[in-house]
Amino acid sequence: FVLGQYAQLLVFIAACWGLGTLIWPVSELGTRQPLRIALGMGLVICALQVLAIAGLLNTASVLLVMGCGLMAAVLQIRQLAWPRLVLSWPLLLLLLATLPTLFSPLRPPLAWDALMYHLPHAREWALTGHLDVHEWLRYPWFPYNFDLLFAATLVLGDDVLPQLIHASTGWATAWLVYRLATQYLPAPAGTVATLATVFWLVTSRSHYSAAYVDMAIALFLTAAFAFMLIGLQTTNRRPVWLAAFLLGVAAGSKYQVLGLLPLFCAALLWRHRLQGPGWRLHREGPTWLGAALCFALPCLYWYARNALITGDPFNPLGG
Prior knowledge:
mainly alpha
């Protein structure tokens, strides 16, 4: 059972990684692999959203999305440089911190919010194949981007895999935190990175056994932060647009992410200041427009739907 569940998770992660590699082929950064996974998850979510809106969320379409991701992964995997693992105390500490989280997701769904609305909404979408609004369930008007992944697993008949997918975002966040620390902090960066990663694994440990969205939000926001860091160091606009896309994926999974939009806009303003007046004159408009479109792509549906049906795009938080 354990091997079967983790085999399915590996297929899902490989598909996400393959899709993410297509739009972020940069190979020299240490953060590239977890960033590709985060991007790939966002792309899978967008594909499932379109399918569910069209009433085509079924076994064939889910397998088609996964198949496309796996094909992309196969094309890229030959170019990977496999690292050599050297046993050391930081690695042992990371393994010890990760070990308790490996079995937590394998129990039947028991977490409160998962049973109250995350999995019930996903179950209804899996049964109908359509992204319906079910007012008899709790929080029917929330943005549910990440829950679309739960619906896809329920289409395939597995109610444990949603918890593993949520747990995988926690592990990917840990990986990204470690890579960010080693890349940007001065020596001894390895020690600080290890402590920061262990801190994340320990403080988030209660979420690995639940089909929630909170660790996924952490992954998308941390990845968006990483792309903004890259965007501050280059004149290339792609990292900024990818940061906006991941922010949109997060905003389409939880309303509270909207509170971070002012910080993102401030980072964009700071970037334009760093690039100088010539850059601002010729590139500022396209950069902002592209960022707005990339942000709206994964989350606009939820807010537009709420506005059209209830008159309030932020229902139920808008009042």
